[in-house]
Design a protein that fits this description.
The structure is a single chain. The chain has 297 residues and is of the alpha+beta class. The chain has two domains: 103 residues, Phosphorylase Kinase, domain 1, CATH 3.30.200; 133 residues, ATP-grasp fold, B domain (D-amino Acid Aminotransferase, Chain A, domain 1), CATH 3.30.470. 30% of the residues lie in helices and 25% in strands. The chain has seven helices and 17 strands. Strand 4 and strand 5 form a beta hairpin. Helix 1 packs parallel to helix 7, helix 4 packs across helix 5 and helix 6 packs antiparallel against helix 7. The protein is globular, with a radius of gyration of 19 Å.
């Protein structure tokens, strides 16, 4: 099995590092590389999950292509041989885990679509009967399906900080009414299309977040899309409302950190081999289930 790639190094090229991604600015384009870093509770762990970045990139590529009839995305190519120099000479670091994309003006809100009552939404509902300020009917159980999809935008936080949920009116204040209505409606549309596909593969899409950017006055889909890092995917055959669900994501990591009373503010810790391997297997299972393809990278 390949070693985890925690950070790419491409000669003298400047690179910005996110929680998971390395981003190279090429002027009117970006090269986005998904590393094998893993974060939990907004803290980056000291070791990674081998090939996690490949899984995330290939899932995003699948969805960009699947959704291409209803939304434009920033993807240009993931073929390293088509990258400009010197990147085309670094397939050993970049193959399978990188995308050349259009550079956009990033809209400073995350567009969260929720279909089930879980996570922070469940906690808020128990206290106030709302999710991100949206009033919901009484009697919904933990992980129960919502009466309809709800749009709960959030502001984008810096690394180490938490996103802040906002209401639609605040979203309008930040990006304007026309853009806010567009990203709300388009996020809902593509969620419905993706959810139907996932359901056909035996997977429940509980919620997800989308990010959008503007190029030449067009709003297009950017960043990662519908991956286990940006979404909650549950195995449909094991779903039962009223309790936490199994999921195709980093739940093994979260559970381990809870078991050692991790302080959730850093620094990250070294994850044991079994947690690494189980998490890797879950990511690969998500790829194979959603795409119907064997993971052979």
């Amino acid at each position: 099995m390949a070693e985890a790639i925690l950070q790419t190094k491409i000669e003298e090229m400047d690179c910005a590092h996110g929680k998971v991604r390395d981003i190279y600015d090429l002027g009117d384009k970006l090269l986005i590389v998904a590393s094998d870093r893993i974060s939990a509770f907004d803290v980056i762990m000291s070791n990674g999950i081998p090939q996690k970045g490949v899984v995330l990139t290939q899932i995003s590529k699948f969805w960009f292509e699947f959704l291409s009839d209803v939304v434009e995305s920033h993807l240009i190519t993931d073929d390293v041989s088509e990258f400009p120099e010197p990147f085309c000479n670094h397939a050993n670091q970049l193959a399978g885990r990188s995308m050349l994309v259009k550079k956009t003006e990033v809209l400073p809100v995350e567009c969260v679509i929720r279909c089930y009552l879980t996570g922070s939404g469940w906690k808020e509902y128990q206290a106030d009967g709302t999710v991100c300020g949206v009033q919901l009917p009484a009697g919904i159980k933990q992980c129960g399906k919502l009466p309809e999809l709800i749009f709960t935008p959030a502001t984008k936080a810096q690394i180490g900080e938490h996103d802040e949920n906002i209401n639609f009116e605040r979203c309008v204040d930040i990006i304007g009414a026309e853009r806010a209505e567009y990203v709300r409606d388009k996020s809902t549309e593509i969620f419905e299309k993706a959810s139907a596909h996932a359901e056909s593969k035996g997977i429940i899409l509980a919620d997800t977040k989308f990010e959008w950017g503007v190029v030449d006055d067009r709003i297009i889909l950017i960043d990662e899309v519908l991956t286990p890092d940006s979404s909650r995917f549950w195995p449909g055959d094991k779903y039962e409302e009223g309790r936490d669900q199994e999921s195709y994501d980093k739940q093994f990591v979260r559970n381990y950190l809870e078991s050692i009373n991790f302080n959730k503010s850093g620094p990250g810790v070294e994850l044991p081999d079994d947690i690494v391997m189980n998490t890797r297997a879950k990511y690969i299972e998500a790829y194979e289930q959603l795409t119907g393809q064997k993971f052979d990278f």
